[in-house]
Write a structure and sequence with these properties.
binds tryptophan; mainly alpha; three-stranded parallel β-sheet; two-stranded parallel ribbon; 13 helices
């Protein structure tokens, strides 16, 4: 509990360009969570360097991500939006938790196996202990809930195991976090292969709509979306492409899939795709405009970065000092 509310923590990497899927599936739904939870959203740059990054690009993307969050409507006065690297407690707690995590546990992490296969020339120790750093992120803020996708569930389970193990030795130090199960956002699929999730790292440029795409590009991508030869706009598994477009339209307009089906009864795919494109444009346009405004206001963004890093550090340091004391580090002389 913090300020009378439960704590919610999530981290995101500033690698790749955010897609419409990230927005409709996550961001958009995070806007109101601060009414119920004390929310921390960290740009996890320490995690990003587990694979090689161009320093200039990483720095730019980290700032861009922070601004996109604000542009999407996450209020930086009510939510703590900050860079992980600005709060030294993440790395410090990660070290301690490394000593409470077994090699065997980390060896079982499927994301490690996938990334090790993908970056065979750079299987570094940081990539291996990545989940421990993630545990540190979460436990540092005594988070009650963590909104994560299915791909991060195994890491969250490990976080719970580490917390319980530590608590078993030293008493109740950490809150044991749970997955956030609230209203989940729409799961948006690739426009070129509706069996795959829309991804920021897809090589096919037509597969994903990026948050910063201009209206023409958005319309073009929607019109090229892969569909089928059924010729009917129905919400069913046999028509995954159309189903995905219905999900997108539905998430953009707030209409339920059944209503969308009714609205386009008897219409052709061409008309429907145009309507989907227009709906997406009308959602992304204000976000882009707000982003451009923020991008011009360096002083304002710098102020947010500084204030939120301080706010995060305050909570993080409280947990860290407690942990350091528990494991037997000497008290600081004041
Ligand atoms: N590993 C997460 C991802 O790639 C990002 C992340 C880092 C995170 N620390 C976190 C997510 C803490 C939730 C909570 O998606």
């Amino acid at each position: 509990m913090l300020n009378g509310k439960k704590v919610l923590f999530s981290g995101m990497q500033a690698t790749g360009n955010l897609t419409l899927g990230n927005y409709l599936g996550a961001l958009k739904n995070w806007v109101n969570l601060c009414e119920e939870y004390e929310c921390f959203y960290s740009v996890v740059d320490l995690h990003s360097i587990t694979v090689r990054q161009d320093p200039t690009i990483l720095r730019q993307r980290a700032r861009k991500l922070l601004m996109i969050y604000i542009a999407a409507g996450i209020d930086p006065e009510k939510n703590c939006l900050y860079y992980q690297s600005h709060v030294s407690g993440h790395a410090e707690l990660a070290w301690i938790l490394n000593c409470f995590t077994y090699m065997g546990e980390l060896n079982r992490m499927t994301q490690f196996k996938d990334k090790a296969a993908k970056h065979a020339d750079n299987i570094n120790a940081g990539l291996f202990t990545y989940p421990v750093l993630m545990a540190a992120d979460i436990l540092l803020y005594q988070a009650d809930v963590v909104p994560v996708g299915i791909d991060q569930m195994q890491h969250l389970e490990l976080t719970r195991d580490i917390a319980q193990r530590f608590n078993g030795v030293y008493g109740d130090v950490f809150t044991v976090p749970e997955a956030y199960i609230g209203k989940v956002g729409a799961k948006i699929m690739s426009l070129q292969d509706p069996a795959k999730k829309m991804s920021k790292s897809d090589e096919n440029p037509h597969a994903s709509i990026y948050l910063m795409d201009d209206p023409d590009t958005i319309m073009r991508k929607c019109k090229r979306a892969v569909t089928d030869s059924e010729g009917q706009i129905l919400y069913r598994e046999e028509q995954p492409g159309i189903r995905n477009l219905i999900d997108i339209y539905s998430a953009c307009t707030g209409k339920r899939p059944e209503e969308v089906v009714k609205e386009f009864d008897g219409k052709g795919y061409g008309d429907f795709k145009t309507a989907v494109g227009e709906a997406v444009v009308s959602v992304l346009k204000p976000l882009q405009a707000r982003y451009e405004e923020l991008n011009k206001d360096k002083t304002y963004i710098d102020g947010i970065i500084k204030a939120n890093a301080e706010k995060a550090s305050y909570t993080a340091t409280k947990t860290l000092r407690k942990v350091q004391r528990k494991v037997g580090f000497p008290d600081r002389v004041r």
